[in-house]
Amino acid sequence: MKEQNKKWSGRFDEPVDKLVQIFTASVDFDQRLALYDIQGSLAHAEMLKKQKIISATDFKKIDQGLKKISEQIMLGKFKWSVSDEDVHLNIEKKLTQLIGDAGKKLHTGRSRNDQIATDLRLFLRDITDEIILKITKLQKNIVSLAKKNINSYMPGLTHLQIAQPISFAHHMMAYYEMLDRDKNRFFDGRKRINQLPLGSAALAGTTYPIDRKFVAKKLKFEGISMNSLDAVSDRDFAIEFCFNASMMMTHLSRLSEELIMWMSPFFNFIDIADKFCTGSSIMPQKKNPDVPELIRGKVARVNGNLLSLLTLMKSQPLAYNKDNQEDKEPVLDSVDTVIGSLEIYADLVRHITVNKKQMLHYAEEGFSTATDLADYLVKKGVPFRTSHEIVANLVNHAVKNDLSLHEIELADLKKFSSVIQKDVYDFLTVEGSVAARSHIGGTSPKQVTKAISLAEIQLKKKLR
Ligand code: ARG
């Protein structure tokens, strides 16, 4: 009798080469989908019973057997074996060992091709919900930080040069907005994840009288795939998930970059609590912002994962190809990176202290209220382009005389434009400049307070 070490070994005259076995196995990583695999199998088996494709007795055995396996997996007692290739075959083999022939009936009307697609969708659906909760938590902490800093002024930068004064709260709320788009993207992608592929079998469907709607309902899928070829080969949902992960991590990388910059002594705008920083093995004085640095760095891998998946699917002929087994590791890596980063970030933002004095100092530097002066002239009837030129000349004068705009005497200001009056000084302060930008989306304390209240209401609502 020849060695029977594979489900299909009757087809072959010799066992699979050991190296090939190891090379083609995926159980080392797809075992993470085990509980979803069982969830899918239970729904499939129940449908087979309902449709009288298997007997009620067999279903009962399958149900009990799978639940026992599920317990073993959760307790970490399940023995995974590379010789059984993947999560599906490992579980099926164990089931047959436990319940005998009934276990061999579970795979009726199904293929691993629609099975893996189902597992991955169930997994990503849960992960999406978890990510949405974690983004919400981070947003809440960002909003609390903003709330404490409505009157903390800082220089807003463009080209990394001092541009116009803003509040630190307004700056933080920009990240709230980015994360809100990220959250909505994940939520939107959930619809496309949440479609049942099971029933497509290998590629062409199955000859059994299956009830796909029943399975979809059991597994809480909101739709059913309409083309069996597409269903087993579609990985769009995973690519989209990876893009959403990349986009979100890109936002975190921008915040990280800013925190790193602000914490450097050249800025000294913020401090991050010691417990979130690390030291140097050689320079005793160092306190390094390793967490934001690492998050900035981790964008590289999530972007790599996205590109892996896109490249994996490019030019792939229909329907299922073994190539698709390569989708798991990038997806899992993006999942772990996003979840880990969100968790640590939510806590990190609670440990930021703001150096208001230093920020204000730089908000007052660099002629940050020059635009306010130009706007002042416009309001006195000067055309904007002309006022822009007048203020440019004034700044030139100030630079040469080492003065700030508000330090220039009224008589000297008047030399540049006769419309300038004493009230000009109200417009040249940082507070005045920030308060004056009081429209939807502006940096004034009034508007930022409104934006924060809106965010707080939004954060209490469920997405829909
Ligand atoms: N381990 C495989 C995967 O991840 C499961 C599907 C295998 N199907 C097959 N016909 N070999 O895609």
UniProtKB/TrEMBL annotation:
<keyword id="KW-0028">Amino-acid biosynthesis</keyword>
<comment type="similarity">
    <text>Belongs to the lyase 1 family. Argininosuccinate lyase subfamily.</text>
</comment>
<dbReference type="InterPro" id="IPR020557">
    <property type="entry name" value="Fumarate_lyase_CS"/>
</dbReference>
<dbReference type="Pfam" id="PF00206">
    <property type="entry name" value="Lyase_1"/>
</dbReference>
<dbReference type="Pfam" id="PF14698">
    <property type="entry name" value="ASL_C2"/>
</dbReference>
<protein>
    <recommendedName>
        <fullName>Argininosuccinate lyase</fullName>
        <ecNumber>4.3.2.1</ecNumber>
    </recommendedName>
</protein>
<keyword id="KW-0963">Cytoplasm</keyword>
<feature type="domain" description="Fumarate lyase N-terminal">
    <location>
        <begin position="10"/>
        <end position="304"/>
    </location>
</feature>
<dbReference type="GO" id="GO:0042450">
    <property type="term" value="P:L-arginine biosynthetic process via ornithine"/>
</dbReference>
<dbReference type="GO" id="GO:0005829">
    <property type="term" value="C:cytosol"/>
</dbReference>
<dbReference type="InterPro" id="IPR029419">
    <property type="entry name" value="Arg_succ_lyase_C"/>
</dbReference>
<dbReference type="InterPro" id="IPR000362">
    <property type="entry name" value="Fumarate_lyase_fam"/>
</dbReference>
<dbReference type="GO" id="GO:0004056">
    <property type="term" value="F:argininosuccinate lyase activity"/>
</dbReference>
<dbReference type="InterPro" id="IPR024083">
    <property type="entry name" value="Fumarase/histidase_N"/>
</dbReference>
<keyword id="KW-0456">Lyase</keyword>
<comment type="pathway">
    <text>Amino-acid biosynthesis; L-arginine biosynthesis; L-arginine from L-ornithine and carbamoyl phosphate: step 3/3.</text>
</comment>
<dbReference type="InterPro" id="IPR008948">
    <property type="entry name" value="L-Aspartase-like"/>
</dbReference>
<dbReference type="InterPro" id="IPR022761">
    <property type="entry name" value="Fumarate_lyase_N"/>
</dbReference>
<dbReference type="InterPro" id="IPR009049">
    <property type="entry name" value="Argininosuccinate_lyase"/>
</dbReference>
<feature type="domain" description="Argininosuccinate lyase C-terminal">
    <location>
        <begin position="367"/>
        <end position="435"/>
    </location>
</feature>
<keyword id="KW-0055">Arginine biosynthesis</keyword>
